[in-house]
Design goal:
By secondary structure, the chain is of the alpha/beta class. The protein has a domain of 124 residues: GMP Synthetase, Chain A, domain 3 (2-Layer Sandwich). Helices cover 31% and strands 25% of the residues. It has 18 helices and 31 strands. It has a 7-stranded mixed sheet, sandwiched between helices. The chain is globular. The structure holds coenzyme A (COA) and adenosine monophosphate.
Length: 638
């Protein structure tokens, strides 16, 4: 491919110079029931809206339109589930019919436009159908990842106040069957908001017990439903709420709307991913994450691609060749996953022997995101696969990439360690604490000058104030990404760390603050700290340090075990909280701030200087000893 750097530059410049013209042109690619009055509505800064006055239906644009325009017989969705040994395919006609029927079921359950529907579901096609069915009738879905515990689900129920909850009897983790229904039952018990109706998909591996009067069997509810038509909604109406970790135990309800979302996501398929209608695109993520929303469900369908819903893991289902089996069997052209998945594959198949067993001739590009992509992983994947590997950076809040190597605009040279350059519409700034722009090479807080482009969050659910406070106050006129990094002399962006207490475990975003809240609730704990420590497979894992209350004389090992169980029980297995240690004291500054950064460095055997403000430097030796006792720092392999 010829170097077409100029195309990226031209497109990017145009998107910032005249966002109205740029996004109006992109919006021509979407079907509108009524055209917008304004492309960018800046009448109420710092709250910006896109395509105000416009009416559309996201489900129509993702599904029906392809039937109406002659793609009805093309595969829309392939459900590939090595854990149940199933492959099921839906053409666009079949998907439309299933979605319309389930939308009819929702209507029959009394769901109307604006109602919230929570999904707590594994990676089964019924979940995708249900998301699209909500979009079809203007209901707002909120998917909760299956690895979260009842307590987290309860928080989301209380915030979203759903009229209906959709669930399945179980999820399957490699070979373990995880019953979901007891977790949902417990969440409903914990929540203040009372859920009056649940539809339960009974899977053959585990049967859920039903609560009379509240729970209804999914298939029985769906039988004989009258298909529902697409309801045009305002471009600015919410399509979904997705909760993500904030800096406390209270998750943030990130909202994505209909109009801007459809426009930007469709634009991204062609211009970022370089994928078009009729091609097979696979995001190996989970519908519980934003990657799953945007790139398993909405974007590939908006673009008329075939999308893959994979219920399996990169390794163990059955082996590290699992991804390559899927790519070759379904003719995947682009795969999107998290670097951790590749670290898992590399660990089990360092020579890429499994890869060689499959015909990967259809495969063009690998996209990685969700956490920092270490250059070793990127280079290994590139060498073994022989295709470009694109690291790109984004967040639940943006819903699509902030920085990427835009394959559809002609790839720029890859610099391992950098997700390349800002995507169209994102005016990126590297700022100091007092809002000064930093020159190339200097690390600062990465901010995006307002307005954010279409598809990014317009606000938090029912919480404009929280949106402003969390994102817009630190750097006035800018959105705070929460990531720190720098640009190099060529304008490439490097994402180095978070400015808050968010850590990234196996591509999953978690708050150490939330884990600390859970530890602090243990009756024996006086104070605590949780830090993210580098991990060869998961990128980072949390490690907890607790100081017990005076007079507590129970076994420290027993307390540590209880703490691990407590986090699993309150936050969920997804936290991967497996290590806690009882320490005599926590290192603090003289003003009482816990020196988490220094503890992290000790645990990672990274060089550190004893902070001048430390209260008592001897505590660092105690921490070093405690860490040694639990196997930290870990010896590096190879
Ligand atoms: N329902 C219930 N439990 C779940 C779950 C779900 N949907 N997803 C994960 N869990 C559980 C796991 O079984 C595991 O439990 P355990 O502690 O009892 O073993 C725990 O949550 C942690 O899961 P995870 O961090 O995913 O670790 P893992 O060891 O099971 O797998 C990888 C490691 C690398 C294979 C896996 O993390 C992976 O495939 N990552 C890709 C990440 C990704 O797709 N991210 C999305 C952004 S692109
Ligand atoms: P989430 O909202 O769960 O998608 O997590 C978003 C966060 O993950 C970002 O704010 C970053 O901290 C991190 N992240 C995502 N993609 C990348 C990437 N390509 N490089 C570095 N960090 C990333």
């Amino acid at each position: 491919m010829a170097a077409t750097k100029n195309v990226y530059d031209e497109v990017y410049d145009r998107s910032l110079r005249d966002p109205n013209a740029f996004w109006a042109q992109a919006a021509e690619d979407v079907y509108w029931d009524r055209r917008w009055d304004k492309v960018l509505d800046d009448s109420r800064p710092p709250f910006y809206r896109w395509f105000t006055g416009g009416l559309l239906n996201t489900c129509y644009n993702a599904v029906d339109i392809h039937v109406d325009r002659g793609r009805g017989k093309q595969k829309a969705l392939i459900y590939d589930s090595p854990v149940t040994n199933t492959i099921r395919t839906y053409t666009y006609v079949e998907l439309r019919d299933e979605v319309a029927r389930f939308a009819g079921t929702l209507v029959r359950q009394g769901i109307t436009k604006g109602d919230r529907v929570i999904l707590y579901m594994p990676m089964v096609p019924e979940a995708v159908i249900a998301m699209l069915a909500c979009a079809r009738i203007g209901a707002i879905h909120s998917v909760v990842f299956g690895g979260f515990a009842a307590n987290e689900l309860a928080k989301r129920i209380d915030d979203a106040q759903p009229t209906l909850v959709l669930t399945a009897s179980c999820g399957i983790e490699v070979t373990r069957v995880i019953p979901y229904k007891p977790l949902l039952d417990h969440a409903i018990e914990l929540a203040a908001h009372k859920v009056s109706r649940c539809l339960v998909l009974q899977r053959p591996m585990a049967r859920a017990s039903m609560v009379a009067g509240r729970d209804v069997d999914w298939n029985e509810a769906n039988a004989g439903s009258t298909p529902a038509e697409c309801v045009p909604v305002a471009a600015t109406d919410p399509l979904y709420i997705l909760y993500t970790s904030g800096t406390t135990g209270i998750p943030k309800g990130v909202v994505h709307d209909n109009g801007g979302h459809a426009v930007a996501l469709k634009w991204s398929m062609k211009n970022i991913y370089g994928v078009g209608a009729g091609e097979v695109y696979w995001a190996a993520s989970d519908i519980g994450w934003v990657v799953g929303h945007s790139y398993i469900v909405y974007a590939p369908l908006l673009a008329g691609c075939t999308t893959i819903l994979y219920e399996g893991k990169p390794v163990g289902t059955p082996d590290p060749g699992a991804f390559w089996r899927v790519v070759s069997q379904h003719g995947v052209v682009a795969l999107f996953t998290a670097p951790t998945a590749f670290r898992a594959i590399k660990k089990e198949d360092p020579e890429g022997v499994h890869m060689k067993k499959y015909d990967l001739s259809s495969f063009r590009t690998l996209f990685l995101a969700g956490e920092r992509c270490d250059p070793d992983t990127l280079l290994w994947a590139r060498e073994k696969l022989g295709v470009p590997v694109v690291d790109h950076w984004w967040q639940t809040e943006t819903g699509w990439p902030i920085a990427a190597n835009c394959v559809g605009l002609g790839m720029l040279p890859v610099k391992p360690g950098s997700p390349t350059k800002p995507v169209a519409g994102y005016d990126l700034r590297i700022l100091t604490e007092d809002n000064q722009e930093l020159p190339a090479g200097q690390i600062g807080s990465i901010a995006i000058k307002l307005p954010l482009p279409p598809a990014c969050l317009p606000t938090l659910w029912n919480n404009d104030e929280g949106y402003e406070k969390s994102y817009l106050t630190r750097h006035p006129g800018h959105y705070l990404t929460g990531d720190a990094g720098y640009r190099d002399d060529d304008g490439y962006v490097y994402i180095m760390s978070r400015v808050d207490d968010i850590i990234n475990v196996a591509g999953h975003r978690l708050s150490t603050g939330a884990m600390e809240e859970v530890l602090a609730g243990h009756p024996d704990v006086a104070e605590c700290a949780v830090v993210g420590v580098a991990d060869e497979l998961k990128g980072e894992v949390p490690v907890g340090f607790v100081v017990t209350k005076a007079g507590v004389s129970r076994s420290e090992a027993e307390i540590a075990r209880e703490l691990v169980d407590r986090v699993r029980d309150r936050i969920g297995p997804v936290a991967s909280f497996k290590t806690a240690t009882v320490v005599k004291r926590l290192p603090k500054t003289r003003s009482g701030k816990i020196l988490r950064g220094t503890m992290k460095k000790i645990a990672e055997a990274a060089p550190y200087t004893t902070p001048a403000t430390i209260d008592d430097p001897a505590i660092l030796d105690e921490i070093t000893e405690s860490l040694k006792a639990i196997g930290y720092p870990k010896a590096k392999k190879g």
